Amino acid sequence: MAKRIVVIGAGIAGLATGVALQQRGHDVTLVEQRTDTSSGAGISIWPNALAALDELSLGDAVREAGGGVTAGAVRWRDGTWLRHPSPQRIVKALGEPLVVIRRSALTAVLTGALADGSLRTGVSAEALVPMGDGVRVRLSDSATLHADAVVGADGTHSMVARHLNGPLKNRYVGYTAWRGVADCAIDPDVAGEVLGPAVEFGHVPLGTDRTYWFATERTSEGGRAPGGELAYLRSRFDGWAEPIPRVLAA
Q: Across the chain, what does the average pLDDT equal?
């Protein structure tokens, strides 16, 4: 029997959940407070996630929109190999490469699989009111949705989680991360991570001509680089093994 289901949050989890529920015949409405859901850099989709996307008949579209990584190396900051796996290590272990894809491309694939008119952007869920026959969802535009069930996929500051569990505190985990996409290619043989004391840098091919990169550093909460974040990273990783300086220069 079809149910009326409201999914709060239309990030990757919310979109995938909405698609899956609609494919099972349910009447699903997704609510997302952002109007632009294409933000973000890249994301690695491992074979178990690709198998889940295959269940939604979306796996091939994601594979075609991204680039494959078959090994996963680890080096020290001077280029010394800490782990130099065989070129097909991931394929041999897991059956296929992991796929690195722009988050905007992944969300486009998922959004395109939704029923027309089921995604409402620019509006947030303000309150949940349990009723005898389901849940009433009050939205920021004063509209009200009635549902048999509500799925919370609304992220770090989740209203749904706070409705269920009461006040939740954010806890800084001790490190800051930067992410980006560079208009340059790297050798797939070095795709993976490069380590230093309390800091690391990762880079993987994003198709044939771009690189998804990230950096993390153990540092105090809330810091800002006076000269800009990119300038700080170029200085912080100056002298590290290529292609890191070249990626940041791009």
A: 95
Q: Is the dihedral of CA 188, 98, 62, 33 positive or negative?
A: negative
Give the angle subtended at the CA of 199 by the CAs of 195 and 204, to the nearest 5°.
55
Within 10 angstroms of residue 74's Cβ, the number of other Cβ atoms is 16
Nearest to 190 by CA among 246, 241, 230: 241
Dist. CA 78–CA 141, nearest whole Å: 55
**Nearest-CA neighbor of 106 among 40, 26, 178?**
40
Tally Cβ neighbours within 10 Å of residue 134: 18
Distance CA 205, CA 213 (A): 9
Q: Each residue of 153-170: pLDDT tens digit?
A: 999 889 999 999 998 888
Helix, strand, coil percent values for the chain (each to nearest 5) = 25, 35, 40
How far is residue 29's CA from residue 43's CA, in Å, rounded to a whole number? 26
Give the SS3 label for residue 97. Answer: coil
Burial (CB count within 10 angstroms: exposed 0-12, middle 13-18, buried 19+), residue 102? buried
What distance lies between CA 96 and its chain's CA centroid? 20
3-state secondary structure of 95: coil
Mean per-residue pLDDT pooled into runs of 10, the chain (250 residues): 96 97 98 84 95 98 93 96 93 94 95 97 95 95 96 93 90 94 94 96 92 96 94 97 97
